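Hi R.,

Here's the chain you asked about this morning:
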Amino acid sequence: MSDQGWVSYARGLVEDSLASQEGWADIVVDLRGEGLDEEVISAVLREHQAWAEEAREWKQHGFPYEEIVRHLRDEVSAGWGDVAHALMEVGMAPADMLRVVLPGLEEGEIPPVVRAALLRDPEDSNRDEAREVVDYFFPGVGECTATRSPRDFGS
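And the predicted structure, written out as tokens:
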């Protein structure tokens, strides 16, 4: 089956799961149980804005952001860029999102998170603050972001 065929198959499974009111963590378990690879699972979850929905629900229940990050990564198959977008969707400013996410990352994992923060609002005056947060956790990287386009950080 083609990649698009697998995505269509996964969409059908997700729609069935949503109709029976399963949560996103359970849906991920079901999709993995069907043998779908992580790229297909991520594509379908991204289409459904699953990570933002989960982050919003967990925030409403009062979970700390660190727990929301852990849940999204471990139980809902979110990549670091997806986590960053989800946190900002529930109202976190880019610099605040960086303060929550960056401490747990290795240097090689920061590009999608930094890209998400800097692309959130390219004209935002708080962009300098986001760069300073990056430089605090990863000295020298924040300076690099001042001269590079957010798109240089990949996806």
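The chain has ten helices and no strands.

Let me know if you need anything else.
M.
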